[in-house]
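If you are new to this repository, start here. Below is one unmodified record pulled from the training split, so you can see the exact layout before writing a loader.
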Amino acid sequence: MTDSQNLLLKSGRWKLWEYPLWLLALASPLLLSSHALIINEIAIVALFALSLDLILGYTGIVSLGHAAFFGMGAYSAALFAKRMMPDPLLGLAVGVAAAGVLGALCSATILRGTDLTRLMVTLGVGLILMELANKLDWLTGGADGLQGVVMGPLLGQFEFDLSGRTAAWYSITVLLLVFVLARRFVNSPFGATLKAIRDNRLRAMAIGIPVTRRLVVVYTVAAALAGAAGALLAQTTGFASLDVFEFHRSADVMLILVIGGVGWLYGGVAGAIVFKLMQDAISSITPQYWTFWIGLFLVVLVLVGRERLTRPWTWINRGSRGSQP
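And here is the target side for that same chain:
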């Protein structure tokens, strides 16, 4: 076994602190039952951020239209539940598949051009889908949204209650499973080629890496995971509206990665926790100006540096990144 293979295996191994962390996450809907709804939101947003990190942090593709796949997953799962079958797991699979197909079709938009053109093109895709959802009101409900989405019991036994505990457990479990798969994905030889493409695309092509094929695959996978997050949102709230396609969704998830850090799968999870808790706390104090305080926090974060603000926890970051700087 080569040194590079040993390095990949080492970086993919679970650390001791990760096991109690995820056990605590799974127990949180029971321990903090009165906050189950926001725990559910955090898990969904963390999954959405993780999907963006695959293309931004590990491949170097900047996107402002990631909400397109989030919205596709949400509407696909909601329509499947309302018109065909209310089974949550089948609906989740439909949302993932629909967003994955859309991602494969849209992957051509990120193969050429500069970062600026990719930003504009990906943003345009999201705006087009939002307008289509608005015009096809006979199918999507238009500006009123797709209402009355009723989900069946999870695994045929667990009903979605008003307290949100079942929804929170459902979302956290999906997040954990996706996290495990994404970890294997980025710590595989395929993931190593993605990092090579991120660092220098021309050099990666010169050494024989099929860059175009790799970009199509990772963009499709990231879109499918974003679709899973959207499907979870529609299933756990019983509603899908044009809001899932809006620009602020893509902007918020970008800010989450700025807070948590890119190129680190826990960055999306940590950023989602900080962002949602700050949003909930600040908006309860000043509903009109909560964005100002989050913006101020981001400015301080950039000026001071994440390492200095989180110095006691820096070892966690470095340990889970393995050999990454």
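Two things worth knowing about this chain: Residues 3-245 form one domain. Residues 312-317, 320-325 have pLDDT under 50 and may be disordered.
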